[in-house]
Amino acid sequence: MKSQHSISATVYWLVIALAVLWGVSWPLMKLALVEMPPLRFRVFCVGVGGFGLLGVCWAMGAPLWVSRQAFLKIAAVALFSATGWGLCMSYGLRMMESSRAVIIAYMFPVWSVPLSAWLLREPLTPRRILGLIAGLVGLALLMGDEIYAVGRSPLGALLMFGAATCWAVATILAKKWSVQVPSSTFAAWINLCALVVLLPLSAWLEEGPYLPFAMSSGPMFGAIYAAIVATLVCQWIWFRLVAVTTASVASISILSVPIVGVFSGLILLGEQPKLTDILALLLVVAALASVMFPGNSAAAKS
């Protein structure tokens, strides 16, 4: 009984930590992107995250190396997750308010519904279909504002939609292939595979710093936070959370991130969410809840 209470307390604090740390990262990332080119920003983040997570693996006694077959699968997942998601997120976040961007970005479990039905033959239950519809309506509200607002275009919202879709595809591929390596090792190599792609691409397409230390204090803090906290620490917390609890309980943290992201954008950047933003947020949270939580008769997934 004692250990059960201990595990419950651990899960409780991990969920809170992940929701807060990931949610706050969105306005801070936007701040960093004011002075740092998007590709070089992502190089800094995945470099710190990848090598940092390898250090965590070494400290915890987890294997550092993977087989050739596992590496190829990890590289394919990384193409959509750390690479595709990172590129769309970095450019999209530059074009729209962080409070709106985080709502679209965290719709990726909703987009997993049609992909799972297609690639994994998972059933399309009425509640999943309802969640998909709610997510699409929320996206339409946000994109409609981007189209009709003076001086804005839907490109930022489309890029964030691309980011969410990339993450959904990566999730489906990871499920389909089920790479048999420890989650911390998996996360480390995801980041390092992205680094191999993004480093030469950034050198070819952009100019500017790879390290944030010559930037002004606000953007520098945002970049360091994004690399150390959002990429390294939060990925470790996420996989730790998945290891000590069910996937359904872990999903609570994902539900909370866009809520924290909206209000942290309000506090840190002075963004003012409109009524459509609040309605979209409520629709997205409802969609995520209907998609990720099992019904009463369904067994919780591990």
Keywords summarizing the entry:
globular, 302 residues, 11 helices, disordered N terminus
Order of helices and strands: HHHHHHHHHHH
Helix content: over 70%
The whole-number mean of residue pLDDT values reads 81
Strand residues, percent: under 5%
Cα-to-Cα separation, first versus last residue: 21 Å
State the major sheet: none
Low-confidence stretches: 1-7, 296-302
Total E-strand runs: 0
Count of alpha and pi helical runs:
11
Q: Tell me the structural class.
A: mainly alpha
What is the radius of gyration? 19 Å
- Quick one: overall form? globular
Integer tally of domains: 1
Concise overview:
It is built from eleven helices and no strands.
Question: What does it look like?
Answer:
This protein has 302 residues and is mainly α. The protein has one domain (2-292). It is built from 11 helices and no strands. The protein has helices at residues 2-32, 38-60, 68-95, 98-105, 108-120, 126-148, 155-177, 183-205, 217-244, 247-268, 275-292.
